[in-house]
Write a structure and sequence with these properties.
Layout: E1 2-4, E2 16-18, H1 33-54, E3 63-65, E4 73-75, E5 79-81, H2 85-98, E6 121-123, E7 128-130, H3 138-154, H4 167-186, H5 190-198, H6 203-206, H7 220-223, H8 225-251, H9 257-261, E8 269-273, H10 276-282, E9 289-294, H11 297-307, E10 323-332, E11 340-347, H12 350-371, E12 379-383, E13 386-390, H13 398-402, E14 405-409, H14 412-417, H15 455-468, H16 478-495, H17 500-520, H18 528-531, H19 534-545, H20 558-575, H21 577-585, H22 591-595, E15 603-607, H23 610-615, E16 618-624, H24 627-637, E17 654-664, E18 674-681, H25 684-705, E19 712-716, E20 719-723, H26 731-737, E21 739-743, H27 746-751
Parallel strand pairs: 3-7
Antiparallel strand pairs: 1-2, 4-5, 6-7, 8-14, 9-10, 10-11, 11-13, 12-13, 15-21, 16-17, 17-18, 18-20, 19-20
């Protein structure tokens, strides 16, 4: 979202601050109508779904452009801007005088070439949405940024959130703007849906979500605050009042970051007009210019004190809860390191004012050294519930600062009605209504008013409510489930020896159920099982544990963990704890059943004819089962199938396989040992397809598979036999005497003695 400033007394730069900046990368402009059609269709569809979720009317069409055409950039401590450098420097110097943002002084230019270029945004002043539909999260991007368009078109008073005037108010108001947009955008992304659902309603849990890694220091205190704390209050408003609850937040956003951090303390806020003229007059001989005037606020004070080591990292000091208002002015003087500074803070109790004063005195010398902007250490003057900080050149203005015009407001609309005190004027309600710049054709993105929200959104909301219902939270008998999962693990490890495919399938069952049981026992994660749908669980685990995996889809670790977790989540969704017990009682019999649980195909287990081979002086050494997962990995390794989350169709017809290493005799005339691989398929076509894939990779895969490039590949109806050349004479024996048994499920296999074992152990 972009909040434009205007040419008034203390905003002379025509800047544009962009808030929606997290979700998009670069998108090359389309060169023809045919090339444009795919992204336009996706944008139209996502916008329609966003409208059905957000239920706000579209007042005018929004132009959609590639992010590469955005003419602004990113400057630390400011955000995504098109500020001229002199105003960016004034901003940085002003905040450096406070004691933060000082690292930004050495950043040249206006940020347009910064490596931190925004990844996506909605520019309200131009009514343009910048988006990259080629990005992995393109739907969430469009939804997030288009939500900003709906917010600003329906709540124009949000344009008064000028950060140049009041950084604290901007951070608080933007918490509901960004929070609402994140909820809509993240509802399109399974991993983020899960994270939002897991936020607990209690203050400490929900307002410090882990995924932002938020820390109230340096520029993050204000700039990241809306994104770290906004989703929690927006989610609570949505759950309590539906989209009307989100609308109410936008109509009257919080007046301070303290109201976001501590909603129970949402009392009046003092807005202050400093005697700017008197400050300038006091420095007439130094020829100083009045620069930035702004408000630090509760979160800024926390960040400032934390940065200088006089406040804890994890939560604001309790005295900050008594913050009532503040305002500072920075005066830029001609000589280097000779600037002046005045700051009036107001508190609800004299005790809180005294503690602020004490902590500020302790760090004041460090502030001067930290930024090298001020010429001397400021002094601190306490006056009842006010604390005044001034540099030596302004000590004579303390009494006048104490008499600053102060007005208290309890609601945003009251502040708007006042003319946005202490500003000279409030905002232009018609700004942005003059239409887009038309460098590209506007998208027809009218909002349907009666369309139902997407099923994924409605399902997610129902899971959020279930996760927050204490009576519905928790897995009954989770401890006994964990014990049962452990017993199954031992059983499978013992009886599925030399069958890696079955062991992986079994691990998908006991591992995922055991994981859910452990989460249920951990207060930090108890809500996760209730928040996860089956597919969301997969996305959550892939994101949490395997983001850096070389091959994120078909590895032997990910399939049992993520696909198996989907089975567990589905069982929990449909039948609760009984569904998890059923999964432990009848785990999948193959990785194919894990990957495609909707299939009910039997699995063929194969036993080599050891006695008959022994009669010929041969014996079986290593033996194992590859299964669908092993075959899929092998084919991806050698480029026969793409590395993506799409199982090749012919593998759906896999029914069983076994690889065995056979050695015959011990003398020099004995045939060389080698591998035999026998597989069964549901159709001759699938058998032939597998054989052709293997023939294609055989020369390159010889070292990995142990088969020579000249290995014999025979297709016999629904069976494929791959044999080392030295073992060709065994082909008739293996064709006639290999024993195969088909099982429709795990219990049937156990009842038969865990074939190819004689009896289960």
């Amino acid at each position: 979202m972009c909040i434009p400033t205007e040419d008034r007394q203390d905003v002379r730069h025509g800047a544009c601050f962009v808030l929606g900046m997290f979700l998009v990368a670069n998108w090359p402009a389309a060169t023809s109508a045919d090339e444009a059609a795919p992204w336009r269709n996706l944008v139209d569809r996502t916008i329609a779904e966003t409208c059905s979720i957000r239920r706000l009317p579209m007042k005018r069409p929004v132009e959609v452009r590639p992010i590469t055409t955005f003419e602004g950039g990113y400057t630390k401590g400011i955000g995504s801007t098109v500020w001229e450098e002199r105003y960016a420097q004034a901003w940085r110097d002003g905040w450096c005088a406070v004691g933060i943002y000082c690292e930004s002084q050495d950043r040249a230019g206006d940020g347009r070439n910064s490596p931190n270029r925004p990844r996506g945004l909605y520019d309200h002043s131009a009514n343009v949405l910048y988006v990259d539909v080629d990005a992995d999260d393109h739907e969430g991007t469009v939804a997030h940024e288009f939500t900003h368009a709906l917010q600003h078109q329906n709540f124009p008073a949000l344009n008064a959130l000028h950060l140049w005037y009041n950084r604290d108010l901007a951070a608080a108001g933007n918490a509901v703007i960004e929070g609402g947009a994140h909820i809509v955008g993240w509802s399109f992304r399974p991993d983020q849906r899960t994270r939002l659902c897991m936020m607990t309603p209690d203050e400490d849990g929900s307002r410090q979500p882990r995924w932002w890694n938020w820390a109230p220091d340096d520029f993050k205190a204000h700039e990241m605050f809306p994104h770290a704390f906004g989703p929690a209050i927006s989610l609570e408003a949505l759950l309590a009042g539906g989209t009307a609850g989100l609308d109410a937040l936008l109509a009257n956003p919080p007046l301070s970051t303290l109201a976001v951090l501590r909603p129970a303390l949402d009392g009046p806020v003092d807005f202050i007009a400093l005697p700017v003229a008197e400050l300038g007059a006091a420095l007439a001989e130094k020829n100083c210019e009045v620069g930035l005037r702004n408000t630090v606020g509760a979160v800024g004070i926390w960040g400032l004190f934390r940065l200088h080591g006089v406040a804890p990292d994890d939560r604001p000091p309790r005295f900050v809860d008594e913050w009532a208002g503040d305002r500072f002015a920075h005066l830029s003087c001609p000589n280097a390191n000779d600037d002046e500074f005045a700051w009036l803070t107001r508190w609800r109790t004299a005790e809180a004012a005294a503690e602020f004063a004490q902590r500020f005195r302790a760090m004041a010398p460090g502030i001067v050294a930290h930024g090298s902007v001020l010429g001397a250490v400021p002094s601190v003057v306490e006056q009842d519930r006010s604390v005044i900080v001034v540099t030596p050149g302004l000590t004579e203005t303390v009494d006048r600062l104490a008499e600053s015009d102060v007005r208290a407001f309890t609601r945003y609309d009251q502040w708007i009605a006042s003319g946005c005190f202490p500003q000279d004027a409030c905002y232009d309600p018609d700004r942005g209504l003059r239409g887009p710049g038309h460098r590209g054709a506007p998208v027809d993105n009218s909002c349907p008013s009666d369309a139902a929200p997407p099923p994924a959104f409605s399902d997610w909301l129902s899971r959020v409510r279930r996760a927050r219902d204490p009576s519905a939270r928790g897995i009954p008998g989770a401890e006994s489930l964990a014990e049962a999962a452990g017993r199954l693990a031992v059983f499978c490890a013992t009886n599925a020896v030399r069958n890696s495919d079955l062991k992986n399938a079994c691990r998908a069952s006991y591992g995922s159920v055991g994981y859910l049981a452990r989460l249920d026992a951990d207060p930090e994660w108890q809500q996760l099982p209730a928040c996860l749908g089956s597919q969301d669980f997969r996305a959550w685990l892939e994101s949490a544990y395997y983001a850096d995996a070389d091959r994120p889809f078909a590895s032997t670790a990910i399939v049992p963990t993520t696909y198996g977790a989907a089975l567990a989540a589905a069982g929990l969704e449909t039948s609760g704890a009984a569904g998890l017990r059923a999964l432990l009682d009848t785990p999948p019999l193959s990785t194919l059943a894990v990957l495609r649980p909707e299939l009910s195909a039997p699995v063929v287990f194969i036993r080599m004819p050891r006695a008959e081979l022994a009669e010929r002086g041969c014996r079986v050494g290593a033996t194992d089962t590859q299964g669908v997962l092993g075959i899929w990995n092998l084919l991806m390794d050698y480029g026969e199938v793409p590395e993506e989350d799409a199982l090749p169709a012919f593998l759906l017809d896999w029914r069983g396989d076994r690889q065995s290493f056979i050695r015959c005799g011990d003398d020099e005339d004995s045939p060389a040992p080698g591998w035999v691989w026998i597989s069964r398929w549901a159709s001759p076509q699938a058998a032939e397809t597998f054989a052709n894939h293997y023939r294609a990779i055989a020369p390159d895969a010889a070292q990995e598979t142990g088969f020579s490039a000249s290995a014999r590949v025979d297709v016999d109806h629904d069976a494929v036999r791959i044999m080392a050349p030295s073992l060709h004479e065994l082909a008739p024996l293996l064709e006639d005497r290999v024993e195969m048994r088909a099982y429709s499920g795990f219990r049937e296999w156990v009842a038969d003695g865990c074939f190819p074992r004689v009896d289960c152990i």
